[in-house]
Specification:
single chain; 414 residues; nine-stranded mixed beta sheet; 12 strands; binds pyridoxal-5'-phosphate; binds iron/sulfur cluster
C-alpha cells in the first residue's frame, strides 16, 4: 500500500497549474466530508472517530492549497490543527457560549453589529474557504452558502446611511472575499456614496487559506475604493508561503495597508519564539501585526484556549526586544459585548502627585517628573459626545453604576 504522502503528492502533481491557481477550482475541490479527508490524510482510529463526531456538530472545509501545507508526519502540525476537526470540539466547557460577544444582540439590522460609537461590523457572507476549528463566529460561519441578497445588503446600507456617526465600516463574515467581485463592488460602491463613511475595512483569511483569490482583477477593482484597509489572520509562520506572500504583495501594491489579527492558540502559537518568528515574517511581507486575540468562549474551542498570562508573557517578550511595528496589541474581547479590551504587562510601577516610576523591558527603573505647570487650558469640545470613563474625565458625569443595585431599590421603596 502506498503511503498517504505519495498519494497526496501524486494528486497534486496531476493538477494543472491553471486549475490550482484558480480560486474557483480551489473552492470547488474543498475537502468537506470525512470520506474525502480519509483518502488524503492518514488518520488513527481514534482521530477518525473524533472527526466523525465533530462533523455532526460543526462543518469542515479545507482548500487543497491549505491541505498541501499540512505536515503529514506530525499530528500536532499547526496547519492541520487549525483545519482538521477533533473530538475535543464536542467538549462543552461550563463557560462556553453560543454568542459570547453579543454580536447578534448588538444588531440593529440583520447582518450588522453596531457595538462601538463610530464603526460597524457588516457580515457580508457566512462562507469561508477553510472553517477554522478555533473560529469565534462558529455559530454563524458556514451556516449558509447562499450569498446575502441585494435586498439584505440594501437594508444594511440604508442603516449606515441613516447613521451619521458611522465613519468606519468593516466588511467581514465569514470571509468577506468569498463574495463575488461583482457583489463586493456593489457593496463598496454603495458605501463610498455615503459621505460620512470615511474608511472601509475588509476582514478576510483568503490571503492565508486561499491566496489564489487575490487576483489582479480583484486588486484593480479594490483600488478604486480607497481608503481601503485589509485585515488578515496569520497564526503561524508556516502559513507564510510563496503563495500567501504573493497575495499580500498584490494587495499592498495597490496601496492597501495590511494588518494581521492572530488568535492565541494553545499548542499552535502560544510561545514567544513562534510569535516572534511570525511577527518578523509578517513585516517582511508588509503585513503589520495589529491584534493578538485571547481565544473567546465560543463553543467547542476550550482546547485551543491558553491562559491570559500566556499572552502577556508573549507581549513582554516582544515589546522593546524587537521593532515596535512588530508588536500587536493583545486584546480580550469581553464576554457579553464589552468589546475588545487591551491587556498589557505593567510598565507603570508607581504614580504619585508629581512623579511617575516606570520600568522598561530590560528591568531598568526610571523616574519621570510631571510638569509643574498644571492649570487646565480650556479646549472647546461638544457636550454630550463622551461616554463611560471619558465622560467622567470631562466632568459630564460624576459616577457610572450598574443597573438594578439593591441599595437603589431600597431607596425607591421608602
Ligand atoms: C473588532 C470589532 C470592531 C473593530 O474594532 P477595532 O478595534 O476598531 O479594530 C468593530 N465592531 C465589532 C463588533 C468588533 O468586534
Ligand atoms: S476565516 Fe474567520 S470566520 Fe471563517 S472560519 Fe476562520 S476564523 Fe471563522
Amino acid at each position: 500500500m502506498k503511503s498517504t504522502e505519495t498519494v497526496m503528492e501524486e494528486i497534486w502533481a496531476t493538477i494543472e497549474p491553471e486549475k490550482w491557481n484558480d480560486w474557483h477550482w480551489q473552492l470547488q475541490n474543498k475537502i468537506t466530508s470525512f470520506e474525502q479527508l480519509e483518502r488524503l490524510v492518514k488518520l488513527s482510529a481514534d482521530e477518525a472517530a473524533g472527526i466523525k463526531d465533530a462533523l455532526s456538530k460543526f462543518r469542515m472545509a479545507i482548500t487543497p492549497y491549505w491541505l498541501s501545507l499540512i505536515d503529514l508526519h506530525n499530528p500536532e502540525c499547526p496547519i492541520r490543527r487549525q483545519a482538521i476537526p477533533s473530538h475535543a470540539e464536542l467538549r462543552q466547557a461550563s463557560c462556553d457560549m453560543e454568542d459570547p460577544l453579543h454580536e447578534d444582540i448588538d444588531s440593529p439590522v440583520p447582518h450588522l453589529t453596531h457595538r462601538y460609537p463610530d464603526r460597524v461590523l457588516f457580515m457580508i457572507t457566512y462562507q469561508c474557504a477553510v472553517y477554522c476549528r478555533h473560529c469565534t463566529r462558529r455559530r454563524i460561519a458556514g451556516t449558509t452558502d447562499r450569498a446575502l441578497s441585494y435586498q439584505d445588503i440594501d437594508k444594511v446600507i440604508t442603516y449606515i446611511k441613516q447613521t451619521p456617526q458611522v465613519r468606519d465600516v468593516l466588511l467581514s463574515g465569514g470571509d468577506s472575499l468569498l463574495v463575488s467581485d461583482e457583489k463586493l463592488e456593489y457593496i463598496l460602491q454603495r458605501l463610498r456614496a455615503i459621505e460620512h463613511v470615511e474608511i472601509i475595512r475588509l476582514g478576510t483569511r483568503a490571503p492565508v487559506v486561499l491566496p489564489q483569490r487575490i487576483t489582479d482583477t480583484l486588486c484593480m477593482m479594490l483600488k478604486k475604493y480607497h481608503p481601503l484597509w485589509v485585515n488578515v489572520q496569520f497564526n503561524h509562520p508556516k502559513e507564510i508561503t510563496s503563495a500567501s506572500t504573493a497575495a499580500c504583495a498584490r494587495l499592498a501594491d495597490v496601496g492597501i495597508p495590511l494588518g494581521n489579527q492572530s488568535v492565541l492558540l494553545r499548542g499552535i502559537n502560544d510561545s514567544s519564539q513562534v510569535m516572534k518568528e511570525l511577527v518578523h515574517k509578517l513585516l517582511k511581507i508588509r503585513v503589520r501585526p495589529y491584534y493578538l486575540y485571547q481565544c473567546d468562549l465560543s463553543q467547542g474551542i476550550e482546547h485551543f484556549r491558553t491562559s491570559v498570562g500566556k499572552g502577556l508573557e508573549i507581549i513582554e517578550s516582544l515589546r522593546g526586544h524587537t521593532s515596535g511595528l512588530a508588536v500587536p496589541t493583545f486584546v480580550l474581547d469581553a464576554p457579553g459585548g464589552g468589546g475588545k479590551i487591551p491587556l498589557s504587562p505593567q510598565y507603570l510601577l508607581l504614580r504619585t502627585d508629581n512623579k511617575v516610576v516606570v520600568r522598561n523591558y530590560e528591568g531598568v527603573i526610571s523616574v519621570y517628573t510631571e510638569p509643574q505647570i498644571r492649570e487646565e487650558i480650556p479646549i472647546k469640545q461638544q457636550q454630550g459626545e463622551r461616554e463611560g470613563i471619558a465622560a467622567l474625565l470631562a466632568g459630564e458625569q460624576v459616577s457610572l453604576e450598574p443597573q438594578g443595585l439593591t441599595r437603589k431599590t431600597r431607596r425607591k421603596n421608602k
